């Protein structure tokens, strides 16, 4: 008995692999949450560290103070060529932009009238010479006649009246001769004047330069009756040009000869040019009650790029301080609500360490080794005195009084009597102390060095001072600083400040 056929074996069904996308999405979401959490934690930590204050760090860098002004480019010397005589222009030998040399013929005026006048004058001179010859012959005859009659008169052979008549005739003949000579001189001078006018019919360039303006054409008649007509305008040497800037009266006090100037022109907006202040003129201009002063700037135009008449937008660099401590101007404007507490937390007040300022002031003097030794000795003495003052300030003060600074209370600080210190007197005392400290050093300088040093000491003594507030251990602490140059966003400071200190610029709003 046969076995029934078994059913065919089924092939096993393939297993589905689990999808990977959900796991990838989940991993990315977890990563994003982790990043967001880290960012939130950092922000919260930064806010906690920063606290309620907005700060700006004290940096070391350069400060450039500049004055903006506008003006016009022009040639250093521009000569207007005119005509001293009248007549018709026959030739014009140059055109716009043509280079010319001194003495070169650039135009001619019809000389016919003056040539005819010269011929007439020559004829008159010849006639005057003929008259002179006739007068000399008459004079010779009169002399002979007088001698004869004088001899006869001595022998009483002629009447005395005849001798007198002969003498009168002689004097008259001499006068006629002198008159004829004068006529020759007169006619010669008149002819020479006409010759000069004839030479003026040829117009020559008085300088080497370039023709900027030509006001005449061939055939045109010029009339030089009351004033010389302007025929050409010639610019001398466009390789050296100048700018006449109009500087406001509020800024003119800072402008000095030799200061650097940078400027741009609309014709070449991508280029910046350089110049130097050559002259500060005293002729003020009043335009709608706005007073400006002209400042002349010398410009090197060796490549011929700049053109006369271009409008200039310039900046005069009135001050440049390199490698100084500077801070945002917001730190100088900030005053805490509890200023008294911040002031009580301040360290010793006063001028701070001035050694860096003194050393910087001495850099342009090119000191000799002996002079450098005198300066170092003075700086060392100041440093020792400053250290002693700071050590005394660290001692407990009676009745909570603040320790005096190196040179006493600074401007804006309260004097022991409670009255505000007089800034003018304080600066005068500081200047006198400076002069005492550097007396030996000053004696070692020559006259020019001494003048520069005196100006530097005056600048240091007259520097303005203001309080700033450092963030120390999460609290504001006042420090008096000297204020120097400012470029509008940052200001040079010096005093009880170091690079990297955080100065408070404002307070954050409570959350």
Radius of gyration: 47 Å
Poorly predicted sequence stretches spanning 5 or more consecutive residues: 1-9, 344-352, 397-421
What amount of the residues lies in strands? Answer: 25-35%
Identify the strand order in the major beta sheet.
2-9-13-11-10-14
Largest sheet: 6 strands, antiparallel, barrel
Structural class: alpha+beta
Extended strand count: 18
Fraction of helical residues? 25-40%
End-to-end Cα distance, whole Å, is 98 Å
Average pLDDT reading = 80
- SSE ordering: HEEEEEHHEEEEEEEEEHHHHHHHEEEE
What global shape is seen?
elongated
Describe it for me?
The protein is of the alpha+beta class. Among the domains are: 69-75 and 235-322, Efflux pump adaptor protein, beta barrel domain (Elongation Factor Tu (Ef-tu), domain 3); 111-200; 334-391 and 405-507, no CATH class. The protein has helices at 21-50, 112-154, 160-199, 329-333, 339-344, 355-362, 369-394, 423-437, 439-443, 447-461, and strands at 53-57, 59-82, 87-92, 99-100, 105-109, 202-204, 209-214, 221-222, 230-248, 260-265, 268-280, 285-287, 290-300, 311-328, 464-472, 475-486, 490-495, 502-507. The chain has a 6-stranded antiparallel beta barrel. A hairpin with a 2-residue loop joins strand 10 (260-265) and strand 11. The protein is elongated. The relative contact order is 0.14. The model is unreliable at 1-9, 344-352 and 397-421 (pLDDT under 50).
